[in-house]
Sequence to fold (516 residues):
Amino acid sequence: MSYKSNLERALSEGRFAVTAEIGPPKGSDPNKIRQKGEILRGCADAFNVTDNQTAVVRMSSMSGCCILLEMDLEPVMQIACRDRNRIALQSDVLGASAVGVRNILCITGDHQSFGNHPGSKGVYDVDSIQLIQIIKNMRDQGVFQSGDEILSGKPFVFIGAAANPFADPYELRVDRLEKKIEAGVDFIQTQSVFNVDKFNMWMDEVRSRGLDKKVHILAGVTPLKSLKMTERMKFHVPGVDIPEEIYDRMKNTTDPKKEGYETALDLTREIKKVKGVHGLHITALFWEDIIPSLVKESDLLPRP
Amino acid sequence: MIISKQKEFNDLLNSIKDEPVFIVGCSECATMCHTGGEEEILAMKEALKNKNIVVTGWVVLDPACHLQNDKRLLRRHKEEIDKARKILVLACGNGVQTVSEILEDVDIVPGTDTLFLGEIKHANEFEIRCVMCGDCILELFGGLCPVSRCPKGMLNGPCGGSKEGKCEVDPDISCIWDTIYKRLKEKGQLYRLKEIREPKDWSKSIEMRRTL
Fold:
């Protein structure tokens, strides 16, 4: 079988996969990506390059992916529906495939009011589920969303999406995952897991519907760097669920970095035990250099 | 109803530049919104007078978006309009343009910002209900519109920012997807949320759409 990407190969062969996030810089310096890439080399099967996350303008996801490809690192290009209509989205999918991007993660995107251009006009021509379906049809049927035929080269990509087990209404959360699977998603990266009980409840429902057999699920892990970051994520970042227990750990410690790291290690050990989880997605916001020891101490090396 | 709000008075003064003004209001939406009915016109007239600006006259159009009615009503005020250098229109963006189509030779000053098509919940409390997409799908969602009421216009369920029934964008507003979920659950129609909704056909509501 020919795999589209390392990530697909790792997941298909039943290995516990690891992806890590690389946030592009707020500027045009390619070395910022290169430095993060070098730190993370060998720590993950593929590297997510975010698409103007939290609606803050940064170097484009596509360019970040190109820089990683030059370094022989495998990117996961994140693509958000907030800033582009279906014409631009499909165009970028073709372009990404042309330059060698083999993993694309579809997200609707954080609302523009959270970012550094709150006066901008959100596009939201399609939502993430529709985008998954569009890319799948481009890849497998060779047609654009309009039904028009792709003439020279169908995009050859492994399709991903996000899932948030912690948002409300809780009853719809597994339904949303199921819809993404029906739309054609190949792998899922979840919102960062801090509340393991709630994650387990979600995974129980996922397994009871047999969904872990239909899609590869990578659970999100985020090491907390400071109390300030913990509070920002707990109180201000939509969709994040940090339980009191972890908040207390971060409040009562004299060494927040160490405590945050230990917490991430504990969470990783817990998550690895959850049946149906096929990998880990590590998002260390502005703290990429912690990832090598996190994967090492979690017995996730060597990669691939 | 078309919801509007009056512009800041100082911004209006900047646009009027001390020149004589004729004020136009509207009998429908702007009256209901308390932005351009008779009461608001008289208050505006008083406020302008206090700034030593001459108000040559005023009229409430019935309604401002009706071209033929406007022509008839404005003709009756020809003398007052001729004395004015600015026409201050307290109506929606449509009303402003219908007036500017008739009074071509004088400066038109929009006196309101037009916000959305919405519902009057209580006096002076309004909420968006429609973006005029040209392709109504309300029957799919228990009569609740995610196109206009979800800030991301999600058609396949709530985004990851729905929390305790509230929207991530503004915790003062309900997550419409939470409301849709509860409504369809009551109706025994949750199956509707399991079907994938394909991208909307926005060609049914494009900028250049004109008359029926």
